Amino acid sequence: MIMENQIKQAISNLKISELNEMQLASIEANKSNEDCVILSPTGSGKTLAFLLPLLAHLKPNKGDVQALIITPTRELTIQIEEVFKSLKTDFKINAAYGGHSIRVEENNFTQVPDVLVGTPGRICDHINRGNLIVSNVKTLILDEFDKSLEMGFQEEMGYIVGQLDSLQKRMLISATEMDEIPQFTGVLDPVYLNFLQEKTEGLTQKMVISDDKDKLQTLFELLCHNKNESTIIFCNHRDTVERVSEFLTDLGVVNSFFHGGLEQQDRERTMIKFRNGSSNYLVTTDLAARGLDIPEIKYIIHYHMPPKEDGFIHRNGRTARMSSTGTSFILLSKGEELPDYISTRPEIELLEDITLPKKPQWETLYLSGGKKDKINKIDIVGFLSKKGNLEKFDLGLIIVQDYSSYAAVSRHKINQLLDDIRNEKVKGKKLKIEIAQ
């Protein structure tokens, strides 16, 4: 069993000063092999709340998959893998999800991971192909379990759980309370940690009334009014997401769009650009309402209102997280009524000072090489500094993936940079380097 000081070292590796109440309660509750249900709002730090206590149930040099984490989305799978790696333990984790070649994952399984995190469909594929033996898995974690049920993954999850012959512990993580826990989970008499009653005091709700049924011009004016602060614009349909994004782009507003119909590489690139500040506005469906690591969101705009209250709650959970503050805007056309689940009518915001928002500080640079090419962040910083003549303050967030990398570069330096590095190599390799689209 990993000692308490090793958990403290993992926390230190994350460069955070202290854990929140929910995370501390989870570590304490999960010291035993009892099943545990964690109920906590979006953005409250649930990933660490199950990863840190998981460490205490992993054994070194086991040679088997010891823990299985099932998630509803590719993005959440990737996020959990990244957070686990940032703990810098000696345990190996692999991710399994659709949208890229299954052979890439099969190659990663040459050395059996201690922890496997993935989406239900892809995990089922690996089990059926015999790529992984899961009969020795001791710990099962069902993250964003309510969303997995909502997305129709009950059959796949039931099949997977049925293959886990050696289970000793289950953790079920949810952002909404359930009337009952499905029988297939095997969770019968769990320890409950319920933090759903904690209200977000830092959230302000406002309403904007549009003269036009379409609301596009009013949305533009609202973004101008709010300046270039980080904003998520929620729509109910994929085609609306793309139409809104195109409209804003035509007016000179730098933005990105995100929905489940995009190819996985495009979804990843969009989120990277939003996280690193190359795009301050994200137009999206409810796919971005939960399970994504998107820090410091100032504004939420409901271009469409969600049909149910829990969707509204999860969207708003993207702002005013932890001790920060934020504002949620409801955008209505004249005559459009508020949904029944909103009992208090928000104050109306009058739009003034309509000036086009400044472009973001950063542009995102794409490099066609990554970890599998033996390229790391230090290599990229050195290359862009020496060959690209960039100063330290001209570089922002750098993300290195298996076969590609992304670097945030000062917008006013990016074109000169591309000229300076046109014929240069990174660690002796000629890479494709361009502005990420």
Average pLDDT rating: 91
The CATH architecture of the largest domain: 3-Layer(aba) Sandwich
- Based on Cα principal axes, name the global outline: globular
CATH class of the largest domain: Alpha Beta
Number of DSSP strands? Answer: 18
Q: Classify the helix fraction into a percent range.
A: 25-40%
Query: Nearest-angstrom radius of gyration?
Result: 23 Å
How many domains?
3
Residue stretches low in confidence (pLDDT < 50, at least 5 long) are none
SS-based structural class?
alpha/beta
Distance from N terminus to C terminus (CA atoms, Å) equals 46 Å
Q: Specify the CATH homologous superfamily of the largest domain.
A: P-loop containing nucleotide triphosphate hydrolases
Enter the CATH topology name of the largest domain.
Rossmann fold
The major pleated sheet works out as:
7 strands, parallel
Strand content: 15-25%
Summarize the structure.
This protein is α/β, with parallel strands linked by helices and 437 residues long. Helices cover 31% and strands 19% of the residues.
Task: Give an overview in words.
The longest helix is centred in the first third of the chain and has 13 residues, at 74-86. The radius of gyration is 23 Å and the shape is globular. Helix 12 links the parallel strand 12 and strand 13 (326-333). Helix 2 (21-29) runs parallel beside helix 3. It folds into 3 domains: 4-194, Rossmann fold, CATH 3.40.50; 203-348, P-loop containing nucleotide triphosphate hydrolases (Rossmann fold), CATH 3.40.50; 362-435, Alpha-Beta Plaits. With 437 residues, it is α/β, with parallel strands linked by helices. The chain has helices spanning 4-13, 21-29, 46-55, 74-86, 102-108, 120-129, 145-150, 154-162, 216-225, 238-250, 264-275, 309-316, 377-386, 414-420, and strands at residues 36-39, 67-70, 93-96, 115-118, 139-142, 169-174, 191-194, 203-210, 231-234, 256-258, 281-284, 299-302, 326-333, 347-348, 362-367, 395-400, 405-410, 433-435.
